[in-house]
């Protein structure tokens, strides 16, 4: 997908979405304490990568809260990460106020490597498009969907089914 929309207005994505079955691309993200995170930090886990424009918006808030609740029903082999271009300090503040403990928030603000490597960097806004990727324990992409309209939520049932196939 080369374009998405925001309230019907077309926006262009940079990078290329990894194909199902392909090796998951690496990334350089920052944790809330400014420590680096790469794909290697999650080796051996089933990794759910949520890509959101900004945690401090209604749809992103709803999505991350939903995955935080769903995490309680998932195997301890599953790790969930929400990546955005929000600053790590803002992510930490949001997590604290929202009571998020099962989803790790990571920032792509510095290098936008996640956005480019997963084909979700919005050229016009320098934000990430809404998408979900599931990486299997062997490091391959088992599921990947970019939500075509930024104001819509992902298909939670479809994502959860993809995770269950790997557990």
Task: Describe what you observe in this structure.
This protein is of the alpha+beta class and 167 residues long. The chain has a single domain, classed as 3-Layer(aba) Sandwich (Glutaredoxin). Helix content is 24%, strand content 28%. The chain contains 4 helices and 11 strands. It has helices at 58-70, 88-98, 113-117, 156-166, and strands at 3-6, 9-14, 29-30, 36-37, 46-51, 78-84, 103-107, 121-122, 127-128, 131-135, 141-146. It starts with a strand and ends with a helix.
Features:
single chain; 167 residues; alpha+beta; Glutaredoxin; five-stranded mixed beta sheet; four-stranded antiparallel beta sheet; 4 helices; globular
List the helices and strands and how they pair.
Layout: E1 3-6, E2 9-14, E3 29-30, E4 36-37, E5 46-51, H1 58-70, E6 78-84, H2 88-98, E7 103-107, H3 113-117, E8 121-122, E9 127-128, E10 131-135, E11 141-146, H4 156-166
Parallel strand pairs: 5-6, 6-7
Antiparallel strand pairs: 1-2, 2-8, 3-4, 5-10, 8-9, 10-11
CATH class: Alpha Beta
Q: If strands are numbered along the chain, what order do they take across the biggest sheet?
A: 7-6-5-10-11
Percent helix range: 10-25%
Helix and strand succession? EEEEEHEHEHEEEEH
Low-confidence stretches: none
Estimate what percentage of residues fall within beta strands.
Answer: 25-35%
Tell me the number of structural domains.
1
Determine the oligomeric state from the structure: single chain
**CATH fold topology:** Glutaredoxin
Biggest beta sheet attributes: 5 strands, mixed
Secondary structure class reads alpha+beta
Query: Looking at this structure, what is the CATH superfamily?
Result: Glutaredoxin
Overall morphology = globular
Number of strands: 11
Average pLDDT taken over every residue: 97
Can you tell me the CATH architecture? 3-Layer(aba) Sandwich
Distance between the termini: 28 Å
The helix tally amounts to 4
How large, in whole angstroms, is the Cα Rg? 14 Å
């Amino acid at each position: 997908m080369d374009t998405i929309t925001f309230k019907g207005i077309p926006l262009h994505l940079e990078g290329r979405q990894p194909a199902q079955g392909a090796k998951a691309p690496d990334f350089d993200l920052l944790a809330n304490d400014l420590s680096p995170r790469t794909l290697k930090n999650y080796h051996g886990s089933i990794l759910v990568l949520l890509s959101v424009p900004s945690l401090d918006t209604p749809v992103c808030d709803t999505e991350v809260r939903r995955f935080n609740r769903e995490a309680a029903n998932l195997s301890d082999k599953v790790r969930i990460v929400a990546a955005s271009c929000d600053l790590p300090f803002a992510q930490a503040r949001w997590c604290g106020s929202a009571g998020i403990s099962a989803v790790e928030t990571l920032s792509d603000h510095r290098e936008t490597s996640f956005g480019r490597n997963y084909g979700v960097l919005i050229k016009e806004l320098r934000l990430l498009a809404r998408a979900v990727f599931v990486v299997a324990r062997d490091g391959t992409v088992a599921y990947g969907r970019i939500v075509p309209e930024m104001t819509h939520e992902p298909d939670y049932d479809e994502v959860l089914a993809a995770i269950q196939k790997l557990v």
